[in-house]
Inverse folding.
């Protein structure tokens, strides 16, 4: 049984570009949350998707958007990349509000 | 505002020493509390969780944590650490609907 899988593992982008990160939740899970983890910090909640709708959102600008597909997989899109967007992006899945399982993350570097 | 504070940024211990990592939270609702561990190069894994009931919860690998409501604390403990416990530890609170608020993390280094 695969856990939470994220792709790609690493990514380098230039300022101003756009990026899409992908997440496949653990089998049986219907809720996907995204977190940003800057170096030396704890993960910060970006948003959560349930039934293909954004259910909750953290304190992130509209440049950060997402999507959830009928098979529960999810994408995180970031537009107009800034140097400060460089971070580890984590996807977590759960069945409703139960225990969250995390993927290994996508390391995004903006140059 | 909801927040989680971890007291120590970096803790260095020798093998067999006892461990206690502090965590305080600020949240007005019913709390669900968690400790996650991130081993080098690996994903975040759940160590233990508190939802309700016995405030002393036991997790994997010999870890335990005590929820003290009056002190808004959820400290992590282990009687005797091993070199393999070297990792980063995060305390988190469920702020409703599965949204987790994390502390800034404590890096634990265990010397053999």
């Amino acid at each position: 049984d695969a856990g939470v899988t994220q792709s790609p593992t690493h990514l380098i982008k230039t300022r101003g570009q756009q990026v899409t990160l992908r997440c496949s939740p653990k089998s049986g899970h219907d809720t996907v949350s995204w977190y940003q983890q800057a170096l030396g910090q704890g993960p910060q909640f970006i948003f959560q998707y349930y039934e293909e709708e954004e259910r909750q959102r953290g304190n992130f600008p509209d440049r950060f958007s997402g999507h959830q597909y009928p098979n529960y997989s999810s994408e995180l899109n970031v537009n107009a990349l800034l140097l400060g967007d460089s971070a580890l992006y984590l996807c977590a899945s759960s069945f409703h509000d139960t225990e969250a399982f995390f993927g290994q993350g996508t390391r995004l570097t903006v140059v | 505002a909801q927040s989680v504070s971890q007291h120590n940024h970096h803790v260095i211990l020798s093998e067999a020493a006892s461990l206690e990592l502090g965590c305080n939270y600020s949240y007005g609702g019913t709390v669900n509390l968690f400790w996650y561990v991130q081993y080098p190069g690996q994903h975040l894994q759940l160590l233990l969780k508190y939802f309700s009931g016995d405030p002393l919860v036991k997790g994997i690998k010999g870890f335990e944590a005590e929820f003290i409501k009056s002190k808004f604390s959820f400290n992590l403990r282990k009687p005797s650490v091993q070199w393999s416990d070297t990792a980063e530890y995060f305390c988190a609170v469920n702020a409703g609907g599965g949204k987790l608020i994390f502390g800034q993390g404590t890096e634990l280094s265990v010397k053999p």
